[in-house]
Each structure stands twice: as structure tokens, then as C-alpha cells.
Protein 1
Amino acid sequence: MAGLKPDSPTPSELTVHNQSRALEISFSDGAEFRIPFELMRVYSPSAEVQGHGPGQEVLQTGKREVKVVELEPVGNYAVKPVFSDGHESGIFSWDYLYFLGNEQDRLWAEYLQRLEKAGVQRDQPMPSAGGHACGSH
């Protein structure tokens, strides 16, 4: 199983660029992406970011300078980045990384709209976590 879908492209090369804060990834179908760490962090597939269902997403702010300090393999289908802000609960499947790379212009636009709608700035620090720690289940 390559990704979560059997016919998904698989990474042929994956490079962490901490200086420019981007993940460079080449896939078996010839697609190549440079995914900013900030985009990966604000769209992390973790429950901490996505919530436990529609409408429970947590808008992420203050992630422009985030780095990937470690990239752990997860089987043959994903990686788990450890971000410099301590976030490490997101498992990024090959399918999801392909989606982030392929849709990053649309995802950036959506993120900026969500920030504007919420009346917060992109570089505003995240509020303190209040009681719900998703890593516990």
C-alpha cells in the first residue's frame, strides 16, 4: 500500500529545507511540490487542528516561522513531522501531502479568508490551550 489509496503516487524524493521552511517532495507521477511548513502546520490532519468533526477546526495563527525539527516515517504510507512549536500529532499520508502540494494556492486563500473572518492576524500568537488535550485519546 503506497498511500491511503492503492493507486496513489508515492514520494520518490523528500527533502526538508529548514532555511526556507519548506518540504520539497517529488512523486512517482512526476509531480513536484514545495510545501511551506506554515501551510503544513495550519492544515495539520491532527485532531488538535481539525477537531473531531466538521465545524470544530481550530484556526492556527503565529505559525509563519515554524520549522520541522524531525520527520518520522510512518509505515510505507506517511510521515509524522515534529514542528518547532511542539506540535507532533499530525500524520501526513502521501495522499495528504500530494493534496497540500497540489491545492496550496487554494488552501492559502482559504486560510487567509478564515483569518480575516475571525478578525485575527496571521502572526498573532495562539491563545493558551484551555483544558482539551487531544493527544490523550
Note: The first helix runs from residue 37 to 42.
Protein 2
Amino acid sequence: MAPNDSAETNGEATGTVVGRRKAARYIVPLAVAGVAAATIGLVPALADSGDPDLPEITAQELIEKIAASDEEQLSGTVKVSTDLGIPSLGGLAGSFAQGAGVGSGSDGASASPDAKLMELASGTHTLRVAVDGEDKQRLSVLGEGSEYSLVHNGDDIWGYDSESNEVYHAQAEGKARAGGKAADHKAAPGTPKQFADEALAAVGDTTSVTVDGTAQVAGRDAYKLVIKPKQSGSTIGSITVAVDASTGVPLKFTLAPSSGGKAAVDAGFTKVDFAKPDASSFSFTPPKGAKVTEADEAKAGAEKKGAEKKGAADKGAADKAQKDLGALEGFKGANVIGEGWTAVAKIEIPGGAGLPTQGSDGAPEQALQFLDAFGDKVTGDFGSGTLFKTRLVNALMTDDGKVYVGAVTKDALVKAADTAK
């Protein structure tokens, strides 16, 4: 086993890592809705075994090894599980997607990655991945008697939902793959590489990085890189990345909350092979009878529906909607209190209204009871408000219409609100 090694990172080291880190070439490009980042993980059963004896390596050397990794071909199985302490988002994903215009069912977009991959934000899932360079990737989400596949082959991106027998098709233009116009098709969540890149990008003066021994993941020898906040008050206890000793590819990513208990996020391979996948893995032809929706058609349909709704509204309602839309621009200018792992975003709610209370106009009692069930009443120098908690992200909505949100504890959130006051 390699002995423990500690590294105090600084801006210079971080810049080197970020500058050298290559794109995650083997992750499927797609259009995914913004889900708090990192809400996908691995069930570690059968993934870890042994404690291999590997040459000593420093934390900086291991970070550089990850950054220099250039493996472009692989295939394997990833098992994912997430425990954020919130209800499953599976049903909500479809609602969010419909509201965003991608629709489902008869709208022809149940195979759109926006809706399907959002389901990975909670629960347990098994994925199969195959990659052959920047232009050929496949991600399949296995269900009970069904499968959702996302295939990128050259200029085409196909999404197929076997349950509904629907197909979603988008063009991955050259600019998209180079990070240009079609950057809507971003890296798919669900692989350790994607999580590791995001974690390493956040490394700075408020972070300690150590090498904490070795492990075996998916039958391969790996070093364990541990990233921890130096500050108190974060809901994140530690992040552990198991790095393949030979290739430098992250094989497993585990995020442990500071409150203890099972991992909140844990992502990794149960099987992995760095040989060139068979070309047939990236071939796709819409099955007979499948409904095919083009991405441009889906977008045009959503815009048409929006225009029809707007046209049906009277002028007074339209003017009010425009005014409300302008007010919502205030959400874009969030202020950040603190830094590093304990940073808190302060957002002003348009109109300065907090949550509805008993006696509020248009606030059904059932709705208020629902909100109370999920939130805790808190007070401080800032006044009073309601705290909404998960295992990683907490949010405080004050009665005077301000929102404080961050991956911090209740006490740290209240302190930030008091400071801002």
C-alpha cells in the first residue's frame, strides 16, 4: 500500500491541473437539464476488494496523472445510486421536461435525454457505457424490462426509449463537439471521470488533498485520492476518487456527507475494459413502428405552444406576465457570501415576498401543511424564515423574501444570513 500523503493545494497547482486536464472524451454528449450536479453514484457491492501494493505517489502526482489520462476507448458497466434525503425525482422529471417544452408521450420526446437522464438524480440505476474516441459513445440505462439508450455517432445523436418505442434525434454539429454552438449537448452525468473533473476544478486554498492508500475497483488496481474541506460548516465531509494505477482514469467517485451515514453520491465501474469497443455498439436505426422526433421539431412545437398560450391571454394578463418576467431577472444576480466549501448564494425574490403563511390570500391550508412538512422554522439576527434541508444542499427562505442556499450546515446558513443582514 502506498503510504498516506498530504498536499496543501494552492492556486498555482490548481491552474496547472485545470490547464492540463483533457476533455472527458468518453462521455456521451447530450442535452441534460441542470440537476445539482452531482447526484449520481455507485453501489459499491462487489466493486472493491483487496488492498494492492503499489509504488508510492504524491497527491500532486496523482492529480497530474488524472489530468494527463488520454484513454479514448473503453466499455463497461456502472452501477449508480444516490441518497440525498429527498424524494425520487423520476415523476417530477417528466413534469419539468414538459414545462420546458420537451414533452413526453404523444409530444414525441419521452426519449429526449432532458427528461430521461434527470431520473438518474435519485434511486439506483445500472448503466452500460461504450466509447471510441470523441465521435462515438453510447450510454444505456437499464430498467426492469426496458432500456433507454443514448448514442452519439459522428454527426448524429440518438435517444431511444424501448418502453414507449420512441426515438429522439439531434444533430451533433462540428461546433458542438468543439464546444461551440451545440454546447447544449453536454457531457453526460454518471461516470467517475465527470465527477472527478468537477471536484478537481474546485480544488484551492480551502481544500486539502491526500493519497489514502490503495484499492481494487472493477478488478483493477487503484490509488485513493481524498479531497476534504479545511473549513468547518460544509455538508460535504470528503470526496474519494479511486484512480486507475495504470491509465489514470477515475474508476470510482464517492462523496460522503459530513453528517455521516451512507455515501450521498458514489459513482464507479463494476466492470471496465479499455479495449476498442465493437463498431456495432454505435450503430442505431430506429425500430419499425417507432415514433421519431427531431430535436428541431420538438423545439418548434414548444415555441408554438408558448405563442398560442400568449395569444390567448388578454392584454392585461400579458402585460403582467411581461412585468413578472422582468422581475425574475433579479434571480440572475445572486450574491455570494463566503468562499470555498462554505460559500452561500444570496438571492433576492422579486417583490420581496417570502413563503405564504396562514391567512395569506390564495394559500390553501393543504399547501401550507405541505411546505411545513418539508421545512423548519428558524430565527436569527436576519429575522425569521424557513429552512429546507437535504443531506448536501440546504436553503433558507426568509419571511422578507430572501433565499440563502449552499452546501453548508444549518448553523452556517443562518450565520451567512445574519452576516448579510
Note: Residues 199 and 384 are 34 Å apart (CA to CA).
Protein 3
Amino acid sequence: MTDTPLPLIIDCDPGIDDAVMLMMAFLSPHLDVQAITTVAGNVPLAFTSRNARMICERMNRTNIPVHAGCPRPMVRKMVTAEDFHGESGIAGMDVFEPEVPLAPGHAVDVLIEKLSAPPEGGYTVILSGPMTNLAAALIMAPQIAQGIRELVVMGGADTAGGNITPSAEFNIYADPLAAAIVFDAGLPTVVLALDATHQVRAEQVRVDRIRALPGRHAELMADLLDAANRLELRWRPGMQVPMHDPSTVGWVLAPHLFETKRCRVSVVTRPGKDFGRTKVKDSARGPHRWVTVADADGFFALVEDLLKAPA
């Protein structure tokens, strides 16, 4: 990566794995996180907005504004995932009320404002939850697409099958219409679907190596990963938790750890058994890059390097 930090906007729904993702982004000197926007997803909006600010405070990054966004999907009834993230949405961390309040401005308005006046080269935007905020922004101001250098999405599934229905991944299922709007916009997009994230799991030996590192950041990350594994084992005995959302920052910092194929992604929005399914059509000229292979050892080596770096 270049010496100039990459301008980054993170739209998320913390969530344990979102918390690990945010920690990685904050620890890297190569990333300039300019705004965090939150959406209802893993837990309701009030909790995702609080949890994002909790992470900022624990990481001494309260200078980064957190803007609350859409409290529900565009059309469908809201679904959440407390069973996988704990009632607070962030098992593994003691809940507290952050000192710094939410930043003023709705997340959709903030996305429009920032993407309408991007830095040279545009913003990299990470979407690690339902895509409601960006979809609404694209409807209101379609010209903001020009301000996005690259969109990095955690969502979808193809060969891996779904994690909330047999064919649908949670982030897409939570707001399929929003996902369809974003994918149909034709933005340069990297998609880290379950096909890739299931290859990167927090095996205990990897968590133990993180816990053995000095410093409070390593302790917090190990606490989060252990909590995530305990929740995962309740539902999938013998399986360690996949690094869904953290893989997005992994891609931004170290794309050489991943293999992709060019394609065009669409979303099933009609009711039925395939509701929320992502369909992947190979296309040499497609705007989307579907991650097919992820290097788990390389990913966790990256995490350890971030934790070892001077604070």
C-alpha cells in the first residue's frame, strides 16, 4: 500500500465480527477511517450505534464520528441475529454507555455528503451489514457512485449455501431490496461471501496466539473471538467462528491473500424459498469480483502484525 492512508468509510451493524473488523481498521496506519455509519442488522439500530461507539472508545478513536442510519429494512420485516452475537450484539465486551454521543446527521445524508465531495481517487467503502444506508443514498443521489473508488461487501453466498436459510446469507436476507439496488448500481465491488469467509476461522490455536500478545488490544480481540466461538459452538458443534466482517479489512490491507473471479451479482427479491439468495454470473466484464479463495493463515498473521504494531 502507499504511504498515504486510504480514505475509508465503514457502514456496519456491530456485531462481534464487526467489532473485530473495526479494531483491525483502527490499528492499521494505512487506513484513514473518516466516518462510521450504522444500520439495523445483527441487533437493532440503537445497539449497533452504541456498540460502534464502544469500540471507538475502547480503541481511543473517539475522534471518528459515528452516524446512526436506517432503523429497519426498506420493505421487509426486520430480522436480527442476537442468537449469534449475544443480546447486546457484542458478547465478549462489557456493555457501557459511551461518553461521546452519536455524531449529528443521518448516515444516509452523511454518505451523500462525503461521496459527493470525495478525496482524490475516491473513497473505499466497506459494507459489513445490511445495505440499507447506501441503497437509500444511491436512490436519493445516484451521482455519489462516482465518489466510490471501491466497494467492499461482506454478504451473499453461492457454493457455501446460506447461514439463515439454505440459500441466503444474513446481511442480504435482512434487506434483499437494498442489496439488489447496490449491486445493480454497477459499482466496482469486491464481495466477501460465505464462500470465502468460511475458509477463515478463529481456530483456538489462532486465538491463543492473539491472547499471548502483550497489550489490552490483543486481550480485547481474544475476548471477542472466544465469545464468538462459544456462540458458534451452540449452533454448529465442532466449528469455529468464521471471520465474516474482518475479511473486508483483510482485503483492503492485503488483497494478495485472496483470489477472485469477475462476475455480475444479482439478488432474489421475490418471496419464496430463494428469497435473499445471491446469484453469481461469471462475466469477464462484470463490475463485481467474487472472492473464491482466502488464505486463513495469512489473514491471522496480518491480525497479529496489526496487534504487534506500536499503539
Note: The chain has one domain: 6-308.
